[in-house]
Write a structure and sequence with these properties.
By secondary structure, the chain is an alpha+beta fold. It has 13 helices and 18 strands.
């Protein structure tokens, strides 16, 4: 009995080790993709921080330059009337492209302003309580971001003292708005927030976050000094949009979900400090892509595990049945080879559609957020076509083991090529590949169905991208033409070319480190079984070229 329990335990441990190994292998590419995504977010965040600092630096020394103009001291002493002073500051405002320029006396009262002629005129207002006024009167460059007490609009204020005989007799202040940066940030993939020492979000690419106060659920006490300029701000972030920190992994901080808490965090962030202004810039990302990737890893691993178990049991049963006769053993071994090839093709053929579905889901999520429903619907149709393709391929697995793939039908080459290229357009753009597509001006039908043609183009484009991986300048040319009664497709890349063109269509032959050697073998099978031909050669200008030919079907 003890031996039976021990044997059962060993079997379970072996199965657990197999599952863990499969999960590890399958998770590697997904982990790399997630890591690249976080790295891209860090680069974008650094760029956003630089753009914010650059925008402020454009105006940082403008108050000092203005303070050297004697007219401002004359305005303080009342030597210019209100209208003349206002026109002077108004012209200066338009010339420097700032929001407002105004002059304060030693008590902080506004004696002249570029908005003197509007209902929101600052003339007569006292700004002596503002931090930028205190800094300027102390001989420093005063800087402060806050809401205007008159306009209630948030802005960045920069001030510098006005001197008369080495004595500071007043302050010149400029007000600039940073809302244009938010428009630029909205084009990015992540939510970007900038908040101050009071945890007030004053800049955000997402309008739902703007003017929210963060940190209250974390027990952070808001400074009482904030009451001075809280006019446009709300009391606190809504429950659905509050950020409650769960834990940190590397540079990423995870925040709890409203329903699942810290078990399944809803959001992660990457942040950088802007020390000069005591601000923090934050990039928020949804964790949904991570969960989708985890689900895909589990599903693919489960599929591979079931296939391996099926293959193992089939192997064991066939070996037991073939012990009596050597001839039966040879037959069974050939069947096992077919099943092994089928198992490998499942992983190979499903990797591209699953990667495309993941990419299309991410794109669709962004399109839905931006209410671009037509484009999102197009993506959903592409996802549906991929799922249909995978379903049909599952039914072809049994015939693949016996090498009887019959993709005969009637397919239109140009439209299928365009659809296949569309699936790869983001990859081509990401890898800086120059695509030279030369389609026929008329429809060309061949005796191969659309699914078979899509597999052909997908495998050839993937093969070309792998071949050009080490090239600085990448160029892919696809041409479709009619020559006599034949349809000719040429696929040429400027990669490393073939070391042995005569072997490229052999099953399991590959020169790539991670290649299975099935891609071009599948392409060759589909073309031959549909009555066509394919040849591989090194192009005279460098790289590899495939030439595909079918007889043209006419109505």
């Amino acid at each position: 009995m003890f031996e039976g329990v021990l044997s059962s335990l060993k079997i379970k441990m072996v199965h657990a080790a197999i599952i863990l190994s499969i999960l590890t292998v399958v998770a590697i590419p997904f982990y790399g993709e997630m890591k690249n995504s976080l790295y891209s977010s860090e680069l974008l965040l650094n760029m956003y921080r630089s753009s914010l600092e650059t925008e402020i630096s454009r105006y940082k020394f403008l108050p000092f330059i203005l303070s050297q103009n004697d007219k401002l001291v004359q305005i303080l002493h009342g030597e210019l009337d209100a209208e003349e002073s206002g026109y002077f500051l108004q012209r200066t405002k338009y010339a420097t492209n700032v929001s407002t320029i105004y002059v304060l006396d030693k008590a902080g009262n506004t004696v002249a302003s570029s908005n003197w002629h509007t209902e929101e005129s600052y003339i007569g207002e006292n700004f002596g309580f503002q931090p930028y006024f205190d800094g300027a009167m102390a001989g420093r460059l005063g800087q402060y971001y806050g809401a205007g007490t008159t306009s209630s609009k948030p802005g960045f204020f920069i001030a510098y003292g006005l001197k008369d005989d080495e004595d500071i007799v007043g302050v010149v202040t400029i007000e600039i708005h940073l809302s244009e940066l938010e428009q630029v940030w909205r084009s990015g993939p992540d939510d970007v927030l900038v908040y101050d020492v009071n945890d007030v979000v004053f800049l955000s690419s997402n309008r739902q976050w703007k003017y929210k106060i963060l940190g209250e659920e974390n027990g952070v006490t808001r400074p009482s000094s904030f009451e001075i300029s809280r006019a446009p701000y709300e009391q606190e972030a809504d429950d659905e949009r509050s950020l409650v920190k769960c834990y940190e992994i590397g540079d990423a901080t995870f925040y709890k979900d409203l329903f699942f808490g810290c078990l399944l965090p809803a959001t992660l962030s990457i942040e950088e400090r802007i020390v000069e202004y005591s601000w923090t810039i934050l990039s928020l990302k949804s964790t949904r892509p991570i969960y989708i990737a985890l689900c895909l890893v589990v599903l693919i691993s489960l599929l591979i595990y079931l296939i391996l178990i099926f293959s193992y049991r089939s192997f064991r049963n066939r070996i037991n049945r073939s012990i009596q006769k050597l001839r039966n053993q040879v037959v069974e071994n050939s069947k096992l080879a077919a099943i092994g090839q089928m198992a490998t093709e499942v992983a190979h053929e499903f990797n591209q559609p699953l990667a495309a579905i993941q990419m299309l889901l991410d794109t669709t999520r962004l399109l839905l957020k931006r209410q671009r429903f037509d484009e999102a619907d197009d993506n959903l149709e592409l996802i549906s076509s991929h799922i249909e393709r995978m379903t049909q391929q599952m039914s072809q697995m049994k015939s693949f083991a016996s090498r009887h793939r019959v993709p005969r039908g009637n397919g239109e080459v140009v439209s299928v090529a365009i659809a296949s290229i569309k699936l790869f357009q983001l990859t081509l753009k990401k890898q800086n590949v120059q695509l030279n597509f030369q389609p026929s001006q008329s429809e060309l039908h061949v005796p191969c169905n659309a699914i078979g043609l899509e597999q052909i183009f997908s495998n050839l484009i993937t093969n070309a991208l792998d071949a050009m991986a080490g090239q600085v300048r990448k160029c892919l040319t696809i041409s479709i033409s009619r020559q006599d009664d034949e349809v000719v497709v040429r696929v040429h890349d400027n990669g490393c070319g073939f070391t042995n063109p005569s072997r490229v269509f052999e099953p399991f032959y590959s020169t790539k480190q991670r290649g299975t050697g099935l891609g071009l073998a599948i392409v060759n099978d589909i073309i031959e079984n549909s009555g066509g031909s394919i040849s591989a050669q090194n192009h005279p200008d460098g790289g590899a070229e495939f030439v595909l030919k079918w007889r043209e079907l006419t109505n």
